[in-house]
Design brief:
Length: about 140
């Protein structure tokens, strides 16, 4: 009888340990579970701006005001993403929106700031983007 109880207890303990091990191995990053990448929009223009970040052919997501040196983050589905920016003084007339379009990967952190340009306008560098794919596998 003691042998039967010991065997039952051992099998139960092994089953619990295996369940715990299997569950701990299947941990995913939130960006993998929820299928998103992060866009960090930074204002290095020297003036206040409004920004937006849209998916594919959408033209509106959530416009946000950024003072000089501020940044904001958008969580976006992987795919084509467009960043929008306009000087704060042009926001009321809904004119002079500047854009930058690129492909965002799952778990990517895309970060390249808006910069000042000649003549009180803004732009983004047309060089390699400072972004990274953060995946722990």
């Amino acid at each position: 009888m003691k042998r039967k109880n010991f065997l039952s207890f051992t099998i139960m303990a092994i089953a619990i340990i295996m369940t715990l091990v299997l569950n701990s191995c299947d941990t995913k990053e939130p960006c993998e579970k929820d299928n998103f990448g992060t866009v960090v929009v930074t204002n290095n223009t020297g003036m206040a701006i409004y920004v937006d970040c849209t998916q594919g052919s959408e033209e509106f997501n959530e416009e946000r005001y950024l003072s000089v040196g501020q940044h904001t983050e958008y969580q976006m589905r992987p795919g084509e993403v467009t960043e929008w920016a306009t000087p704060a003084e042009d926001y009321a007339c809904n004119c002079n929106w500047f854009t930058d379009t690129y492909y965002l990967e799952q778990c990517e952190i895309h970060n390249d700031p808006w910069l000042p340009a000649k003549g009180e306008t803004i732009y983004k560098l047309n060089v390699s983007v400072k972004s990274s794919v953060v995946k722990n596998k």
